[in-house]
Structure formats: C-alpha cells, structure tokens
Structures
1.
Amino acid sequence: MINHDRETYPMMSRRFASKLLTGGMALGLGLASFSTQAQQGEPIKVGVLHSLSGTMAISETTLKDTMLMLIAEQNSKGGLLGRPLEAVVVDPASDWPLFAERARELLEQEKVAAIFGAWTSVSRKSVLPVVEELNGILFYPVQYEGEESSRNVFYTGAAPNQQAIPAVDYLMNDLGVERWVLAGTDYVYPRTTNRILEAYLKANGVADEDIMINYTPFGHADWQSIVSDIKRFGSQGKMTAVVSTINGDANVPFYRELGNQGVSSADIPVVAFSVGEEELSGIDTGPLVGHMAAWNYFMSVDTPENAAFIENWHAFIEDTDRVTNDPMEAHYVGFNMWVKAVEKAGTTDVDAVIDAMVGVQVPNLTGGIAEMLPNHHITKPVLIGEIQDDGQFLTVWETDDLVPGDAWSRFLEDSKNIVADWTDPIRCGNYNPATETCSGQNY
Amino acid sequence: MNSMERKRFRHLRLWAPILLLWSLASVLHAQDQQPDGEDADTAMIESAPTDVEPGTLAELLPLLAKSNLRERAQLADAIATAGHPRSAAVLAALLKGQLHSIPDDPPRVVIVSAVGNDPDVVDAATGEPLGRASGVDSKRIPVNNLMRRQLRTLIARASLDVADPAAREAAVRELMGSDIDDDVRRLLMERAAVEDNATVREALVTAVALAKLGNEDPLVRIEAIRNLEGSLLSEARASLARIAANDPDPSVRKVAASALQSVQARVNFYRFLENVFFGLSLGSVLLLAAIGLAITFGVMGVINMAHGELIMLGAYTTWGIQQLLPGYIDISVLIAIPAAFLVAGTVGVAIERGVIRFLYGRPLETLLATFGLSLILQQTVRSLFSPLNRSVSSPSWMSGSLQINPVLSITYNRLYILIFGLMVFAALVTVLKRTDMGLKLRAVSQNRTMSRAVGVRASWVDALTFGLGAGIAGVAGVALSQLTNVGPNLGQAYIIDSFLVVVFGGVGNLWGTLVGAMGLGIVNKFLEPYAGAVLAKIVVLVLVILFIQKRPRGLFPQKGRAAEG
C-alpha cells in the first residue's frame, strides 16, 4: 500500500521521506522493505525524470517503474558503495520547459548523483543546458537522431547507425526494395533521421523519383490520402517499402488505414523505428502482422538474461501481462553501467564517474556485452522483427556483431568529418580530426 | 416563416451536389464492380537454391516444424512440388499462421481452424480431426514477409484449376502481381485455352498480355499492348509506362504511350472521386466530433472545453463493452452506441448540475472551469485504466474496402462512419425540430425568461440539453474508437477542430455545422496532396480565421432578435 502511494504521489512521499531522514531513519519510505540489509551511511539519490502525466505518460511511466525496479534490485544486493540507493521521482508532465526546471531541482536541491530520464528529443535538448551548467549526469534511454555528444549525457538508446541504417540495409539487400517512402511525424527526430537516410539511399544509387518523403503533424489521424499515395507510389512495378518514423499515437490509425486499403505487409512492408511492444499492447495487432520494426532489443529474444529480466519485471509490477521494450533495456544497461562506474571510481563524484564510465562493459539482455564508448554512446546489436498477432516480434534478421553508436553521422555533409571523444587528450564532443579543432558545438 | 422556408431550400441546394456525387458513385460501382483483387506489387520471389530433398508431404511436415526461416522457405517449395492433395491446404494454413507444431519426436504438424474461441484441430498430413485447440499444446510455425509472398504465389499456381471462379480469378491476379516467368506463363496460357468463365478469361488475357510485354518480337509486344489498352489495373499501367519510356522500338513506345493516354482521363476522374470521398470522410469525423458541441456551445452558449473528454469517455465505453462481450466483436460496436450515449450523457448532466449551472453568463469562468474538468477527466482515466492506449478491435464488417474498380476503392470503416455521422445528424435535427423536448430547448435558448413564464422548467431543460450534447459526443467516441487510439489524450486531438467547425458553420445552426464540417474536410483533402498534411492544416486554419474576419457569425449566421441578444 505505502509503496504504491510513493509511486503515485512522488512529491508528497519525498517530503515525507525527508521528514523521516531528520527523524534519524536513514531510509526512504519506498525502500523500507529492504531496510533489513546492512546498509550504512546516507543514501545515494538517483533522479528519475520521466513524464507521469500528459501525452508522453504513455511511454515514460513504464521507464519510471523500470528505474524503481532496478534501484530496488540494487538495494537488495546491498546498495552501492555500502550505501542504499534512493529514487527521487519527479514529474515533468510532458511539458518540455518543465523538464529543465525539474532537472534543476533534482541537481540543485536533491543533489542526485545521476538522472535517468527524458524521452522525446525536445525534452532532452531542454535538459541538456541544465546538466551541463550544473555538471550532472543524464542517462538518455531512447533511440534518437544523433548529431550530439555532451560530456554530461550518456546515450544508451540507438543512434541512427544502430537502427535506421541497418534497417534500410536489410530492406535493400534481403527484400530487394527499390522504392522508398520515408514517412515521419514533423519534428526533429524524423527530420534528421530522414535527412540521413535520404543521403544514405542516394549514396547507394537510389534515384530521386524513387524516394517519397512525407511529414504529418503529431497525432495525425486521417491517413486516407497518404496511404492512397503510398499505394500508388508502390504499384509502379518496383518493390516498395515504407520507413516509418511516425511517432507513437499516429501509428494506430496509420496501420488501420493500410490494412483497410488492402496494403499487406507482403506488398508494401512498413519498418518502424518508434513502434515497440508497449505501443503494440494498445493496438489490435491483426492488421499489423508482418510489418516490421528495427530495435536493439525485443521482448521475444531468447536469452537467460532476458528471461530473468522479464520475470523480475512481472514480479515487480505485479502483472504478468505487462511487456518489456527497448528503452527499458537501455535503462537496464545504463543503470548497470553507472553502478559499475561508481564502483570503479569509488565515489559518486560526477567528474570521477564520467571519466570512469568510458570503457565500462556490462551484459545486455540480448546475449552480448554493451560497452560505453568514448563518444558516450554504447555498442548495441541491431534486430529486425516482424510483428506477430500476439503483439510480439519475430526476429527475422540481426547484425552479426554489436554496432558501435556514432554520435555524428557519416552520411551528412556537415558532420561526416566530426567525431566525439571524451577521453584524454581530445575531450571534445565535436572534434574534427583533420583540422584538429574542437568546435565546442556539442549539440 | 417565409424566410425560414427559403433557408430550408438553401440547405437543399447545398445537399444536392453531395447526394449527386453519392448516387454517381453508386452507379459507377454497379457498372464496374469487380471482385476484390489484391493490388499486389511485382516484386521478385527469389527461389533460393534448394538443398532440401524432395519428398512426400508426410516426410516434409516434421522437417517444417524444426526448420529455421530459410529452410522453411525451401520446404514450402518442396511441399508445393510434392503435389499431395493436401499440399495447398497446408500452404494456405502456413500463410495464415494456422499451421502449428506439437513438440514430439518426430514433431506433429497440425492445422488449427480460424473460427471460434476454441477452434478445431486437424492433422496437417491426413486431415484427421484431433479435437479442440484447448486440448492440444501446440505452437505456431511462424513465417516472414518473404515467405508470405512466396506462399501466395505457390498457392495461386495451385489454385488455377479450382472450381470456384472467384478463387481462380484471385489466383490469376496474384500471379499477375508476381514476376511472371516462362513456367507461369505456360500455366496461364493453358488455363486460358480451357477457361469458360468470362471474367476469369479476361483476367487471364491481361495476365498473358503482361507476360508477353517482355517478348523480343515488337509485333508481339504491340499486340500485347492492344490487349492491355483500357485496363485500369495498376500493373498494366505501370508496365505500359515502362514500355512507353524505355522500349527500344519507337513504334512500340508510341503505341504504349497512346494506350496509356486513353485511360488517363478515367484514372484522373476516379482519383477526383476518391479525393471527394476522402474529404467527405474527414468531414464526417469532424461532424461527429463537433455536433455535440453544436448543441452545448451552439445552442446553449456554453464553452465546454471538456467536450473532447466526453468523446473519450464514449470511446472507453466501446472498449468496456468489448471487454464485457469478448466473443461478439461484430455487434459490440452497435451495443456501444446507446451505452456510450448514456455514459457520456450522464457525465454531461453531472457536469452541468455540478459546475456549469453556477457559471451561466460568465463565459470566461465556464471556459476555465471546463478546462480544469477536462484535465481532471483525463487524469482520472489515466489513473483508472493506465496511461496506455486500450485496444479496440474492429468488427469484421468494418474492415477492408469496397473495390469499385482497380483505381477507386472505398474503405468500409470510413463509409460506415460517414453514413453514421449523417444518421446522427438527422436524428439530432429531428429531436430539435420535431419533439417536445426540442421545442422547449429552442424556446429556452431563445428567450429564457419568457419560456419560464409559460411554464418551462428552464434549469431542467438546461441539464437535459447539456446531457444530449454530451451524449452525442459519447456516440462520436464510438465512431472514433474505430479510427484512432483509445487513450486518455483522445479528446484533446478533436477539441480545437470541433470549435473550428462550429464557429465556421455559424454558432447555433446545425446545418451550418454539417456544411462547415464537410467543407473543411474536402478543402483539407484537396490541399493535402499539394501542400502536405502539416501545411494543409495550417492553410485551412488561416482561411477560417480570414473568413471569420469577414463574416464573424460564420457561414450561416442566426438571424432575428434572438441572435442579437
């Protein structure tokens, strides 16, 4: 009961928790069940910055729960550096400027050792100046458009070369796709990703008239004309595929319209970068069977690590119907990396931890070892899965090796010579090895 | 009275073109109707080198259960060539995901029937019944897209000789969409020689002609082009366009170009009709979303920012009904209509009694209070049902599309929602114009004091009117649950559009709402291909703002003393 309250009303329980602290009890309310462990010292605070209300609550609430689970697990293993971990949950309410304010609150008032949070690119960009100014650490768990590397941010989601490019390779080489529809929601992630993909396709000899680019507003619900256009574009005698960066909510009407207009996955497959198990759980998956998604993790991956993770998740959330998804795995990897780096540094001091992070290796859930790279991105496998009618993915293709994440795309004119390296002697997020200059323009 | 009648005639004039288009569409439909043909692409099916030994069906099936995806594709080929009478059924089951395996040594392969909650299971090789799915521990044998295409072609090849003409035609169309090799061409020509059904023969002629377009002899190619002339099929038009652009022989190029030209006008006409339908369909969604608001805002003058959330409640009711009646998806949507009306209507009455009645005559405070209510309703739903979307299934009669001809098809869900929107509109107009309650409602909205003087319980009418508007919003939610996500944010997406439609159409005028919704829908859909979805929305908004500047009371302003007050 009490546990539940803490989740639903984080603000209130945090105040309550600090009262308890002054009362001499060194443990937060939510961690009371682990208080039997011998944990000495003041708790290490971990900030969780995910929207629990507003539009993004649909995706981010799960990540908040994932963090609470990971922290609880770590505490049951004896905490970190002999101290218990305490989650400080705040709700930025899907309001981008509020992300910055809440991040400031976490760093200035709560003095958290690290923040795990943000989902949309715009929320990350809003938090970035704050964590840089106050020298905090942010773990960002979602696939994103790249073209960024901040000293204070660790990107545990996929960069475009770990999701979009391999997916296009698969379509081109294995399915023989010759015509491309790049459909996306109109904001920074699809725009940048499509710019990279367009450059990549053209570099591979795809003609201009074989690429159709289409943007729609957030939550677009009337797909009739666009699907009809796609159908026409795809019936010109060349194998056509849709590469979709359509954001969450607009996907359901899009797939429904495809199904109703008789476009099956065998005719024109859609490969999506923003549709995962969590999104599928709210959809009647019948019309989607065979359409694809590219991720770095699927719930259906058959490894002992994944089985254990799913079991823990079901036990923690007390609902065996809940699914796991890619950003959850990213938090799992990110959190374990942070724990390892803190242990390696022997302190939660931000500068020491940032330096200790690079090179840290932890197992991921797909049977490989994720490594933090000098550009603050990690190595990941790329998996392509086809949607099944039970809302899970059937893996149809995966990369042989783990793919290291590129902070700056090799396929864009303005970033092809840029690298990020936060180790000595370069220590720069935007470095041009040819001219040996660091522009300081990290994002 | 006279002016009212004239008004009614003007509405008729606006109705006329819409009805005309409808009747036109139905006539065309009657003329050109063809059974559903899948608009398949002409992608290559790569037949991988076979390292699977040919064998009998009974030998191949256990291998299928243990295979990986690549082996499975080769096994499918081997099963097709095995030529067993059950081969086609096995491949069809594999395509539909009905082929399961039972872990055993050797594994047993079964077909699970698609019908019922606890479907029948039969042995794949023998067809012997094995009981019900609940009694068998089986796992589906998955396929991927590459295999789906391969299976469709394999099944089509095997189905050229089946008894059902519709199935034969579907098979021909499937083969037309795939890459026609010599083997398939021979099959098609053999079939064309003995085919006695006219429609199937026509399809066969087109298919053979398509295959002959690759012939080396220019005369054969010209002959084939002549056979394809006038065909609206996208495969035919795409091939002709390719020939017209790339053929080495200039005379062939010319014939192909003129053949293309001859259908272009028809294609353009059908595309125009398609666009009009898209516009009307978007209009019907706008109409459904706005019509409840036309009552609460238009007639009562209450700025109800929680209108969208009432729509959302209707959508959640649909989901709730589906949860209660899991086996009856086809009728649960129909049951949801009155249920959603009651749920949203009750909440509407509660909102009116609890909040709005204290705020009449204070529009700003009403706006803020109802905005607060909308947030409360959203978060309540989020806390009760989780922030995740709920999955609402579509009934089978609302899936798929009506294929009028190869260029023009109309999706059933949009068609039904369009009809439903018009029905709701007609019902509402009847209630307002023909019933006692409607009379009182209009009386109170026109002159409250006078109505009370003649004995109308104004506060009671207020509550019922708001309940009616809210209930209709709930009904709109049922329709929207078939088009979009059912989640806590559903209402937000429609609130702006609803106000836009009501203000544009003329506050207080139901017919204005209808014309406004349809007009905005059509303008939006005709702009979209040129401007893109984002810009089209902006342009429409700017146009409406400019329009309101010119005519502040909308398309059909209320006239007379009541409107001035």
2.
Amino acid sequence: MESDRIVFHGTLAELLDKVERGEMVPRLQASHAPPCKFWTAFQVLNGIRHMVPVIHGPKGCTYSVAASYKMPGCEYRGVPFEPTTCTAQNEVDVVYGGEGKLLEAVREADRRYNPDLIVILSCCCSGITGDDVEGVAHTASREVRARVLAIRSEGFGGDFRSGYEDAFRVVMDLMEPRREIMKGYINIIGAREGPTYTEWSQDLDELTRLLAAIGVRVNGVLCGGCTVEQLRRAPSVELNASWCYDWGQKFGDLMEARFGVPYARTGQPYGLAATEEWALGVAVPLGLEERAREVLRKEAEAVAPELETLRRCFEGKTALIEISEFPGPIRALSLARMTQELGAHPIVINLHPYTVKERMPSIKFLLQRGQNPEVILTKGLFALGSFASSSETQAEVEDIARQYDRAIYVGTPLRQPGVPQLNMTTITGFPQYGFAGIRNMARLVQSGLAHASRPRSRLFRQVLYGD
Amino acid sequence: MATDHHRPDAFSGGPSAAGDADEAARPRADRPRERCHDPYLRCALYGAAQATLGVRGCCVLSHSPQGCFQLVDAAFGWQDADYTETLTLCTKLCEDEIVHGGEDLLERTILEARDLDVPVMFVLTACGPEIVGDDVTAVCEHVAPRVGFRIVPVLCAGFRGDQYHGTDIALEAMLEHLEPDERPLRRPRSVCLLAPHANCNPTWMGDLAWVQEVLARLGATVVATLTHETLPAELERVPEAEACLVLSHDAGQRAADWLARRYGIEQWCRGVPLPIGFSNTRRWLTELGARLGAASEVERIIAEGERAVVAACRRKGLEQSAFHRAPVAIVADATVGIPLVRFITEDLEMIPRLVCLRSGQPATRDLLARELADLGLQPRVEFEADVYRARQALAEVRPEMVLGSNIERHAVEALGIPFVFRIADPISRFRMVNRAYFGYTGMLNLIECMQNDWWDRYRSRDRRYRARW
C-alpha cells in the first residue's frame, strides 16, 4: 500500500480521538457539504401529516426542499401532495423586517390548507434581520385553528445535525405529559420523512413486522409519516425504540428527560445478533421476553440456510466496508459488526472526520458496546471536486484491496476494486434490517462471489473515472 | 379582435382562498396581496448558478451556507454540466461569518482553489453575506492578481428575486466583466443566443440544438451562446454579433437590451412566440429568413418540416379522439406556455380554458394577450402563479386535460381531472436523449409525451380476477 495515499489508518477510537482534538479537519471548504440546518429541520417536520410549513424566507429555499423531500415523498412513499409555503421574502422585507407579513401568511395558510399543524421555519434572511418567529407563532396560535410552532433554522445557524435535533426538540411541544401508559405500545423514533435513501420504508416495515409478531404495537414512527395525534400521546407509550440508534439517540434522550419515557438503546438490526438485540431491547422492558425469544428462534430457523451462506462467504475474509457517504456511516459500522460476527475482519474505509464529529455520541455508544473496527481514510476523501475524489478513491481502494488476502468489498458500486463485491447501496426495495435483510444480503453476497472476476464495464469506468 | 377581457390589466390574478369567491372576482389591484406562497420557482441564486454553470470548464463558488450549495448542485444538473470539467465550491458560511463577516473566508477559499485548472471563477453571493455587507466585489478584485483565472462576482442573493431574475443578473455580470479590451469588428450574419436554459422543457438543450441547426442552414454563425457549453472565449466574441435571439420568454431580455445599448446589437424575433407548433415555427423562421436574406431556404425548411410531421402522425397515429375540442389547462413557464396556446388550438384542435404561467414579465403579458386575441380565445389567465393558485384555478375551471408538470399530476389528485400531460419540469420521467419542443421534431415530441400520458391514464391499474399461471 502506498503510504502517501493513506491519510489515516487506525481504530475507530483513535480516529475519534483525533477528531476530538481538532485534527483531520478538511482544508478545503468544498470538500464535504451536506445540507444546512434549515434543510434537515424541514426534513424532520415534513414527516408530520397535514403539517404546513411557512418558511420565512425567499422562494429558493422553499422550492428546493419541496423538490427534494416533498415530491419524492409523494412518488416513493405514496403520501398525498401537500403544500410547502413561504413568505417569499424580498429586498423590502430584508430592510424593514417581515413579521407582519409572516403573521398574515400563517393566517392565510390556516385558511387555505386546513392543516393540523403549521410550523414557521426561519431562513438566513429572517435569522439575520432578527424577525421574532416564536413571537409570531405565539400570536398566531391564538388566532388560527391549527397548532402553530416555530423553529429557528437559519442555514448558517448550525450544522446539518442541529437541524434534526432542534426539530425533534420543537416537536416535543406537541406532546402531552405522560399519563395512563398505553400497554404494549412503543414509538419508533428518530425517523425523517424525506425520503432520504438512508431511511428505507422496507427497513421500517421489517421492524414493524417483527414487533407485531412479538405482540408489540407501534403508536407512531416519529417523524416518519406520523400524525399530530400520535405525537400528542407519544409520551404515554411504554417505551421508545429507534429505527437507527444514531438518529433516535437525541430524541430518545430528550423524551426521557422531559417525559420520563424509557428508551431502548440498541444499534441497527444488521445480522442475527443485532436483530435479536434490537427485538429483545423492546420485548424485555415490555415483559414479552419469552414470546420474543420464541419468535426469534423461529425466524432464525427460517433463515438458517441464508445465515450459513453468509458465514461461508465471510469466514476468514477481510471485509472492506465503504458506505460511509451513502447510505451512511452508522450503517457502515453496523455492517462491520455483522461481518465480524460472521467471522470476517472488518475494515471501514473513508469514514469522513466531519461525519465522526457530527455523530460523537453515537460513535461513543458503539465504542462502549465494544465496536472498535479498523478504519482507513484515503487521500481522495479530501480531494476537491467529486470527479477528482471519485477517480482517486477508486485507485486507493484498489490498492487497499491488493494488500489483503481474501478481501471482500462491501460497499458502493462507484468502486470495483477487483475482489468479490457486495453492492450495499442499491435501492432495490429489499430491506437490509432484520431477518428479511439477512435473506437479501445472502442473495447479494452469493451473486458478488459468483461474478467476482467480471471486469468493470468500459461504460461505467469512463463515466465514473473518465479513463 | 381584442376584447377588454384580453387586456393585460383585465387579467385575473386568481383567488387567494378556497372560500373567497368574491375575492376571486375582484380585479387584481383591489385584492389584498397574497402572503403565503407555494413557489414553482427557485430564487435568484439558483438562476445565476444555472447561467454561470453553462460556461464550460468554469468554477462556481457559492459564497453561502452549505444549504444554498444544494441549489448550485441542482443548477449543475439543469445545465448538464460535466463533473470532469466543471467544479462547484462553497464557503459554507456559519454563524461566525454572519456575525464577523465572511470576506476573509471568501478570500481564503478562492486562494485554496488557485491550483485549479479553470479559466474563470464565478463567485455567487447568497442572502447571508449580502445582508451582512460582505464586499464580495472588493475581495474578488483584491485576490485576482494571486490566481491564474478570472474572477467574476455575481451579486445574486435569493431575496433579490426569482430564478429568472438571477439569470438576468448573471448574464449582465458576465457581459460586463468579460467584455474584450478592444471592440472587435462586427461579423455579418452572426448571432448571439441568450438564455436558452430559461425554459421548462426538461431537455431544453434539444431546443437549443434545433435553433443552432436552423441557423446553420440559413448561413448564420452563432458567435456565442449565453449559456450552454459556452467556451470562455465565446464571451469575448459577443460584441461581434450582428444580432441576438432571446430563446426564452422568461429571462434574457435584460441582456438583449444591454447588448443593444452597449454595442447596438439588434434583437431578432422580438415579440414573436417561440417556435412551437406549425404557425409559431413558420412565423419565427420567416422573420429569421428575412433578416438573413434566406427566405427561400426558410420555405424549404418549413415545407420539409410540416411534411415530416404530417407523415409521422399519419403513419404512427394521432389521437384525434383525445385532443379534439378537449378543454385544456396549460400550467408552465411563459417560454413553453405561450407558444403552446397556438399549437394546441390550431394544430391539435384543443380549447385552452386556463393559461397559468409561473412568471409574468410585462412583455410576456402583452404577448399572451395578443396571442389570445388573435386566436379568439378567452381562457382564464394567471401570471406569477404559485402551486396553490394553480390548483385553485384548476379546481374552478375543471379542464379535462392539463399540460403541466408532475406537480399538477399530484396536486389534482382529488379534483377529478383525468389527464395530466407532463411536459414541463419537473416531469418525473427520465430522458437520456434531449428532446426538443421547438420546431418540427419538437411538435412530434410533444404529441408523443401527451399520447403516452393519455394512454397511461387510460390503462387500468386494477385486475378484475387473478391469472391462473
């Protein structure tokens, strides 16, 4: 391996340490640009049914989130088309302020759209000019039929993660105190209705299927298409569980602190052990352990051939895992755990320091649970421009794959390092979570091994790397 | 004969609330201004990014928080930019830069990019830095001697206006900053094409290609296209042009006016609907032929084109039963929407009952009024429509068909309007090959879109019983 191509090689704990000390910060401004706080706050709130956003800003922010999240929601998730509105701020509003216009917009939204909830989101313009969005929400809530909330979500005001977390915080204002406990009910928390590709409906379907078999009912998936009513009674469930530990963690902690709702701290259900852990994490506190163990035993028996296939394919191999950018870093770490359980030595490639910085609590949680895989960061991760990054990283991953006997690449089809390969990013409509995920991954790994010697197509090579 | 109804000032601005029938009936000026807007358009930053990313191999630096960078990414796609050539950067402004100013960060980011092999960098400004008063122009001038490329500041904060306004701002900035030191000689029979990308055809590059092909046949030279795959050298050749053609009814007019003032470059085909359908195409080509002294070649193009359209429809099939006298709504930009009126009325025998445009520049309003008067049509007309107003108008007019986008396809779900033909962006249909709406193949492309969506709706989604195998 050419050492000048490797920027970091160590354990996850060592990488975290460097990031905490402020090292590994990308030099170039444009090297990694996820959405801003406004986008991510919208993403969470967009997951509430019959919610009309009144974005206190210009048209550009508004159309962009509508096109990115609202329309795909209609196409992919089958949700009905509902409005995404704004105050269409112009130069006059910027100079003189726009609180009056905002109040009128909220009234108009209530009259026009008959929503259950109106959320005012501030943008850069209204954030800088200091319009009092909370004050307007308070005034409006006395005049209109819908509930009205406000969130300070100006794009410069925080990183992308703060948008999710602040939105979860605001959503809690819709919740009523924990009263009579809804026996046998849980919330699945930390979801966002985007859709984002990291949040597949099929994964959530697998979780709800498993819960139903155990005898657990779901009050709502917060905020993945939930209603205001589900949010209102959310604190009265027996337990909160997360579809993804990372996104649920903050929401779970916040609801635990404010309402006393217990939170099942489990990782993503990739592979047998993590799936059992996830299911028991819910069943045990609800007093359903016996039934759950019986369900898990039967489910595990049913996927025994697939588990055997996975073990055969991974045993004694080095699993090079590179899905940190898409479908996400926490999934990469979950896959590392799964491949280790199947007898492989996992190495996570290109877990961006930015993403580590944004996910410190989740990564520390995983480290506490004993997950500390090897991590390699390559130079291409920090290259300027997507093309430079793509072609450079391909060469680097090829180099890494050559260094290990019996390597298997678990990652993105953007690369083909010349070893057996699993495409873990294909949006196939098949889940990766739970027992259905085990079946799906067994099918994928068989195909990857059977066709490992096939070359990368000239078309793909030229499109991706410009060869 | 024009009636009062067709005068622009008599046009309806649309209702602002479902229950406000009296409000809908009131003249536009008397009605309270709408405050709650569900936009079809993005902001000026996006339009400026669209225009600048059409310059081949350039670098676009967005001086903005990282969210605005997503708009630049969207514009990158709209221009079919190639990621092996064109680079997009962002200063990723945070609270610090909003409080203390972002000029240092902008300078540092430009200097970090100095090794890039690009001829020109466009620096686009978002709302934040413009409100806090970053002097972007001064930073660009200050840093220019230390980099190997030209830097063009484009002040295009989102609050300045919509995406068409942003395109106008960017075109003007390009023309001003990149004009040659010496004025070149005028090149006879040459044209400059303006704003081809301000067009809701998702593959508008097909329209541009048709225009370029026609001009070549008429013996004209295109000295510059502002913008699509524009070579930086083309920008300096703009003053050589004898004339300019604005390929949009939504943007580009300001640049044409600037060229007229600065260089005396004449605008051809001004006030003529863009070439969609037999009559519009004939009219547009005929003016070009007259300007270029190529009338007989134009007649040949028209004869060949019209023959080809008729032959294709005769051989492959034209759904007269779908179109004939069908009450129709057009929901689109002015670039496609206005020419469609004549095309669907004259060629497809449809009856436009609603024309709902996302934009509404004064010249556009006049042009549509003239077209409607000439065709003897009295549809309801909406300018600068947002999604709510479009949906309300559709609910009230209840056309049988909508020529629109995927937005209307979803928005009319509960309205009982059977057909939505997706021709305007966004269409949720992938197109690998550019399909023109302009010219004769363009007519066939539009008919094909309409007939496919018509058949899709016609086909049953349900099965009355299960198969046995």
